[in-house]
Amino acid sequence: MAILPIIKNPADVLTTPAKEVTQFDEKLATLLDNMYETMVDSDGVGIAAPQVNEGIKAAVLEIGEEREILEIVNPEIIEYSVDTNVDLEGCLSFPGLFGEVERSNGIRVEAQDRNGNLFEIEAYDYDARVLQHEIDHLNGVLFDSKITRILTEEELEALYAEEDE
Prior knowledge:
Shape: globular
Strand content: 25-35%
Number of helices: 4
Structural class: alpha+beta
Order of helices and strands: HHEEEEEEEHEH
Strand order of the largest sheet: 1-2-3-6-7
């Protein structure tokens, strides 16, 4: 497996809607494996193919209390809950930028796995936020366009200090 370079904003691949995956082969499997290694190496919780310069609808993320690996190919959000929340987000393609983003509290997603098998997943709270962030990437939508308030470095440090107490 390999650590891939992460594309930083601005870059056309980040704002161009990704293409549907039609070949479920060893190349895709290797890309997903490498994306996972890259995400872990970068201390991320999710990464989309456009972030590693691949304009296809594929993402890897960690969900659940056990932070299990979830690979989603050609994902589509098929249901949103009406309730939303605002929380802190960052992005591997925007080093140093953190802001508050409003997202749906719960979603249902239809996607394919690395072999092309169709599945559905329901996600809530933090997991729903991560899924929405990565699916936005696949649609060429970047989180900076959804930030309602940017946090300063001092505010971030204060948040981290609170968590450590």
